[in-house]
Amino acid sequence: MDNTAVQFTALLQAQGITLSPKQLEQFELYFSELVSWNEKMNLTGITEREQVYMKHFYDSLSLAFFMNMGEVNTLADIGSGAGFPGIPLKICFPHLKLTIVDSLSKRISFLQHVCDTLQLKNVQLIHGRAEDVARQFIHRDAYDLVTARAVARLALLNEFCLPFTRKDGLFAAMKGNDPSEELTEAKRSFKELRAELQKVESFTLPVEESARHIVFIRKTGATPAKYPRKAGTPAKAPLI
């Protein structure tokens, strides 16, 4: 193992996550495919090895530092981009049934290639807008845990993600800066979408020492029939 892999393994071990040789190999393959495909299409601005392992892989897995992933069966990752946080979580917790929703078909092609290369099972990749997919019966009020990482402000994210979350399930919004202002702005969306703030966890990303926050939101009831609104509407008129 090189220094990056050693450091990555040690940092996760400190959080109670032990990687097998196979899982380490899957992260290595993921890294090489990400860099290779990034030359053809814009997946990430971060391609340097240590940065990918810290800012993408470790950051994605930080969700597991604050909740028991063993209790999660179904996970939906909304607006996943290059697969974060969904794919790193699936590598570490293979029991997860993962659904990824992304609006760009090229990204879905990349993710399909990654799943094939890494031999990941029980991953469903959906090309579509979150507002449309959440209207489908099979996905609505269905998932134990829903995630979104650095996608949009919370009032908007709530409308994208809470319709996928089952009653008493969790939506985890992964943020950089302190989300206090966004939480105040999102109060109406909590009420409208039948949800409540459970907790906000914060930590510092190792090496570069930048702030990270995870907003945990509990779903208290089924999504009202009028939500999510038609694709494009939430972004133009967020619930604030």
From TrEMBL:
Location (main, coarse): cytoplasm
Subcellular location(s) of the protein: Cytoplasm
Molecular function via GO: rRNA (guanine-N7-)-methyltransferase activity
UniProt keyword terms in alphabetical order: Cytoplasm, Methyltransferase, rRNA processing, S-adenosyl-L-methionine, Transferase
Cytoplasm is among the record's keywords: yes
EC number(s) from the headed UniProt entry: 2.1.1.-
Keyword check for S-adenosyl-L-methionine: yes
Protein residues bound to S-adenosyl-L-methionine: 79, 84, 130-131, 149
CDD domains, per database record: AdoMet_MTases
GO cellular component, as recorded: cytosol
SUPFAM superfamilies attached to this UniProt entry: S-adenosyl-L-methionine-dependent methyltransferases (SSF53335)
Family: Belongs to the methyltransferase superfamily. RNA methyltransferase RsmG family.
Function: Specifically methylates the N7 position of guanine in position 535 of 16S rRNA.
NCBIfam families on file: rsmG_gidB
Protein's UniProt name: Ribosomal RNA small subunit methyltransferase G
Lineage: Bacteria, Bacillati, Bacillota, Bacilli, Bacillales
Gene label: rsmG
